[in-house]
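Model it.
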Amino acid sequence: MWHNVWAVIRREYLQRVRSKWFIVATTVGPLMMAGLIIVPAWLAVQGEREQFDLAVVDGTGVLYEGLASRLEKGGFQVEEARWHSNVVTELRERANGGELGGFIMVDELTLETGEALYYSMDVPTALRQVTVQTSVARTALEYQLEQQGVDPEGLLGGGELQVEVLSAAGSDISEPQFAIAYAGAFFLYMVILLYAVAVMRATLEEKTSRIVEVIISAMKPSELMLGKIMGVCAVSLTQMAIWIAAAVALLAGAIPMLIAARPELANLENLREIAPGMGLTALFVGFFVFGFLMYSGLYAAVGAMCNSDEEAQQAQFPMITLLIVPIVMVAPIIQAPNTPMATALSLFPLFSPILMWARVSGGGVPVWQVALSFVLMALMIWVIAAIAGRIYKVGILMSGKRPTLPELWRWVKEA
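Modeled.
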């Protein structure tokens, strides 16, 4: 048996990884990421490096130190220019000569209203404007608070809000965790759907071309179906590994370039700290493999019982629905991962790959629930394999009208 299965796996894998579709799809993804991330970052670095040299003219005599400190944290190179009657003309000439990217004028009005004049050689980006505006306003506010005898650190730091969750069903998930949970769930939805449909199309192509009649004469239908599913799974894991490795490499190179071009984006450095670890990555791959095996079995059955692409498009609607439902529920389940509804839905095997991942990556899910979800998914794979295998055994050799539900039940019993 396993000799035949391995032969099908090898054929499916080599045929697909050598195809133009695989080569193009695998290479275009990283190239698109490079075009969208690295090229703009490189152009920004080349075009804006000199724009961060600023001079500050402090007409108040009390704001320069605090303002310079904040601007430097935002990535600017700051120097002080003393006030005199021709200071604006002098700084304009230096800016036109390429020595400065611009200069800032603060005076007594800044202390009262936070207003300042920002002379820039080009139109500053929105983030750069916010950095300058915030630095000026916070420096002026800090001075006024000190004059009133108030410690500005607590108020200017935004204060501290301590949250105490009254219900065990609540979640204190952070924004980065939410992003990882949601992005991972959506990615699982996309790749499971993409590769499960590939199994259906492969089955349909062999059926409509009648090649399957020759193959079935040399092996059992169950061996063919298992080999086809495992072969496509190996292809999908190969492509995912290439994409993930390319994304990590691109981000590792692009983040320093982006920060160099936009110092106000310095918080991007924190992405490395919140990136999923090896354990969470392994769990992600496990959810993908189990989800793929479940849905590819269903899609293989759909391909076996249909006779054309049009029929297959209609027949796969129930499977698409089973994938859409958990995607719709991802956001509320991430926010409240321990409610009875969230627990029940994430333990339903066909929803587990997406919803259990969303709960786990958000944190706070008991280990026994994760283990139970894998056990239930394994049982569902066995059930789907038994039913889909029987439909596949009869349907792969059938041609003509798409079977009705009673006919499908008869196929299952007779097989």
